Amino acid sequence: MSQDTDNQLLGVVLLVRHGDRQGFYQDPDTYTATATQITPLGNQQEFLLGSYLRSLYLNESSPSYIPGMSTGLFNPAQVYIQADFGDENGVIYDSCVSLTQGLWPATLSNNITLANGTTIMAPLGGYQYIPIETVDPNLSIALEGFANCNTFNTHTTEFYNSSIFQEMATQSAAFLDLLPPYLNGRSVQLENMWNIYDFMNVNDIHNATFANALPATYLAQVQTLANWHEYNVFSDQSISGVGNIAGLAILPSILNGFADITNSTSPVQLSITAISYKPFLSLFNMTGVASANPSLAGIVNYAAAVALELRQPSGGGEPVIRFNFKNGTDADFVTYNFLNLTGDVPLSAFIDAMAPVAVNTTATWCSVCANDQDSGCAALALATEQGEAAARPKISPAGAGVLGAGLTLIVVALMGFTLAFLGVLTISRFGRRRSRHPGAFELKKDGESI
Fold this sequence. Notes:
By secondary structure, the chain is of the alpha/beta class. It has helices at residues 40-57, 91-103, 123-126, 150-160, 163-176, 193-206, 208-213, 218-233, 245-262, 278-286, 289-292, 347-354, 362-368, 377-391, 397-422, and strands at residues 8-17, 79-84, 111-113, 119-121, 133-135, 270-275, 305-312, 320-326, 334-336, 345-346, 444-445, 448-449. The strands form 3 sheets. Strands 1, 2, 5, 6, 7, 8, 9 and 10 form an 8-stranded mixed β-sheet that branches. A two-stranded antiparallel sheet has the order 3-4. A two-stranded antiparallel sheet has the order 11-12. A hairpin with a 2-residue loop joins strand 11 and strand 12. The longest helix has 26 residues, at 397-422. It is globular, with a radius of gyration of 24 Å.
């Protein structure tokens, strides 16, 4: 399949990583994280990314302009934005705020005329306040499917115990033994490779004494090992394997973004999801982008972005997806082949590959991750247990015959509302989507299912 240069852009699903931040520690076994905060550099990186995206998609003179999108005042009906509010504390949300400042900058048009004829402009020269849905991993698994996932932790442990890991530990031991003077007491075990890299990278950016003392090749060598480490942790040989859980959990957000774009009754044409680096690794693995481009089998840079452009071929037929990626603010978008196909990929091919493995509900995640306590699993288990207990007859057989059916209907109804809240059952998701829990999706074009 060749790339159609004359096709029409219908809409875009964006995945963006946060900007530069202060030091950050992750448990090597569970990836439980400590708090950190964004830096002014990180805010600037995200603002520049937003400005770049604006020049592409919200500029009527751009060949990639999304038809009908407002180019001045923000139109909330046309855009859906969500940001991870757990991993790395508030860094991802704060990054998303800066991103939206670049996408929808202050404008003199952001004003209102009062009854007495006075015109009032919004503060800060017409600053636009863009609504962003925060996604708490304690309430939704959509953006941090790996958090509290017991089977993922087992996957990580198995990787550390594997022969390939032991071989890499042996090969890298001599180099790692050189690093203690630059790690301020941090472990130099290969299992701790993410924290080794992050400490050195943050200090190389912000600490002039450290940057001047660090040997020229050390950071690049450390990053190579960290890329290898993280890609193996957050990927899997099987597309549905739990090593891909960060990608499996975010798939419904991507698919629902396409559903909004193709649904003629929905005005949403741009979907933005702000995340950490982890879902990128899984997504690159699941789509085959990393296997075809080994340089992408690693940690993406600050302010990296994937733009999944949905386009209508000039010759007609079903929409196609173009996979674009830019690795930080110093790069432009590059188009990559994916799903082992060449050029733009039919939407149906993407759905066929991804929809069957997407983790769509809390119940599915609880099962996949063998968890009955976290992220809504405990409430789900309790609701199921109480519903089953309440439905059991506790009176005489004669009385049970009269009351049993009515009681069961009431319990089932109550369970339905509880499970719908938890994401186990899904009540129609269309209209404006604002659920924090991934649910079922249905892709439509002009009112017909694809």
